[in-house]
Each structure stands twice: as C-alpha cells, then as structure tokens.
Write a structure and sequence with these properties.
single chain; 314 residues; mainly beta; Beta-galactosidase, Chain A, domain 5; 6-stranded antiparallel sheet
C-alpha cells in the first residue's frame, strides 16, 4: 500500500536484489544481472562476475574484503555467502496487533570437509503499508573449532538517490581515506559527482556516533530530486554489532553507485585483519546476531527529520 517493494532472492544467500518506491529504484544494478550461483567464481576478483549490485549483498561469512592469502589459504573477494543458495525457506504473514507483518526466513550454510561449518539464519520482515523493512541475521559456528568471522552488508545506492550533488548524511564523526586515490578530493567524500569518465573508486572508513540506544544512521539523499521534493533511503544498525562502516564511492560512467557498508571488519583482506589483531572469531557453538533497518525517505520532510536525529548524535 505504500508503493514500496523489494525482491529477496533465496538462491543468492537471501539477499535483496532489487527495491523500488513508487517506481523509483533505490539501488544500483550492475550489467551482470542475477547470476545463478553455479557460475560463481571464487578466485581473485571473480566475485565481480556475479555481483549484481542490488540493495543488499552480504559479504562473508569467514572472510570479506580484498582477495588475499591468509595462513596459506587463497581467499577471493568478499566471500561465498551471497553466492550460496538458502534452504528451509519460509514465507508467511500474520496480524500483530494493528500491524500485518509479512516475512521470509531461510538458512544459508557455508561448509567444507576439514574446514568451516557456519550457518546464517536470516529473517526479513516488513509491516504492510510501511516503506521500510528489517533484517535479522543469526550467524552460528556449527563446527568444533574456532573460525574467523568477517561480515559486511554491501548496500548499493543508485540513481536517483545518487546523483550530481546528492549526499551521504550519517552519524559519522570522521572519514579516513583507505588509500592515496581516496585522498584525492577527500573533502568531498559525502558529495557525489555526475557520472564521470575514468572515475576510480574511493573508499572511506567512518567512525560512527550513535544515539542513546546505540544505533548509527546513514542515508543517501537527493534533495533536488523532482524539483526539490527530495528522495533517498537510510540504514539504521547497532554499532555494537557492526563497529565498522565503509563508504564505497564509485561515480563512474555505467558503474554509478555509492555503497553504505556496515561491517565487523575493514575491506583490506583477512590477512591484514589478522595482522592488525582485529580479526574476529566464532568459537564452537557461538552465535552472533545482527539487526538492520532500511527505509525510504520519500520527501524532503523525512530527509530533514533524519538530519535532525543525526545532529543529536554528534
């Protein structure tokens, strides 16, 4: 009833491959389209051949970020989870008080003989008539040994939320360039250019402030859209669960996207995470929970309300 719709793809890790509001797309979609997981290429940068973009692509669960060699193991870009089919998929809905709640739930397992055995249980739900949804993930180590755990939500905003002079607004206290390329124009980390020939990706690491309940906020907003009506969308999450936030600014021709990426790691590879002493582990039987809210900002009014909430966090 709100005009908000999104697509969950069980064959691709229960990720959200598309979302729109009243016909306006929220996310960027790549030229690959929705690739069957049988065509996944795990080595090196092969992940990019099945990276459709979409609203939410999950990266992990035992590694995420750049390809690397960690303790003798060759690891490709961003892990296996988004190219792994779900099982025990369940779709339902019910009245909860005055709200009709619809949901989809499933399990995704990443396992190897003599290796990891880790399972994601994901539930995505929305209240009928609202322009937001929630993701609740439980990641569990089903093996008998500790295993590395790297986890990142690749949230990919596209036109019209991303356009010339649209912005990233967030509870960020600081933004640190990942490399020399990101240092170029770093003062414009939150302002976006029109599609630019030869644009090279820029990545920034943010330190996020939180509200009194521990939530961090980030949004992609276009205040000029539709003669000043405004448009955008936001993500809200618990910093205690996802202490890192990565911005992926890619304002190129054809690849015109900005990524908002709450995570428990940086994106330089598992070897670098281990060397820094920041690599997280799941002990045998241990579970981690993650909760995200993603919603539409359909007009300038909702954008300004979020800006006021963000300002109270700083």
């Amino acid at each position: 009833g709100s005009g908000f719709s999104f697509t969950v793809t069980p064959d691709r890790g229960m990720d959200i491959t598309y979302a729109e509001y009243n016909g306006q797309p929220l996310c960027w979609r790549s030229a690959t389209g929705d690739v069957h997981p049988a065509f996944y290429e795990p080595e090196g940068l092969g992940w990019l051949r099945s990276f459709y973009g979409g609203l939410v692509t999950t990266c992990g669960m035992t590694y995420a970020g750049a390809p690397c060699v960690d303790e003798g193991k060759e690891l490709g870009l961003h892990g296996r989870i988004s190219n792994t089919p779900a099982k025990n998929v369940w779709i339902d809905g019910e009245w909860q008080g005055d709200n009709y709640v619809i949901w989809i739930q499933g399990k995704v397992r990443e396992a190897s003989v003599f290796g990891e055995n880790i399972q994601l249980t994901r539930k995505i739900w929305a209240n009928l008539g609202e322009s937001r949804f929630f993701i609740h993930d439980i990641v569990e180590n089903l093996s008998f040994d500790p295993i590395p755990h790297m986890y990142l939500y690749h949230i990919n905003g596209g036109f019209p939320a991303v356009d010339a002079n649209s912005m990233l607004i967030s509870t960020s206290k600081s933004a640190t360039p990942r490399d020399d390329e990101a240092k170029i124009g770093k003062e414009r980390y939150y302002i976006f250019e029109p599609p630019t020939a030869g644009f090279k990706e820029k990545v920034y690491y943010h330190d996020m402030a939180v509200d009194k309940d521990g939530y961090a906020y980030s949004a992609l907003v276009n205040k000029d859209f539709n003669n000043g009506q405004g448009f955008g969308f936001y993500v809200k999450y618990l910093k205690s669960q996802l202490p890192r936030f990565i911005e992926w600014k890619m304002n190129g021709e054809g690849t015109y996207v900005v990524g908002m990426e709450p995570a428990n790691c940086l994106v330089e590879g598992r070897d670098k995470e281990r060397q820094r002493g920041t690599l997280q582990f799941l002990q045998s039987g241990e579970k981690r929970e993650y909760l995200l809210e993603i919603g539409v900002l359909p007009t300038i009014k909702e954008i300004e309300e979020l800006e006021a909430k963000i300002n109270l966090c700083k």
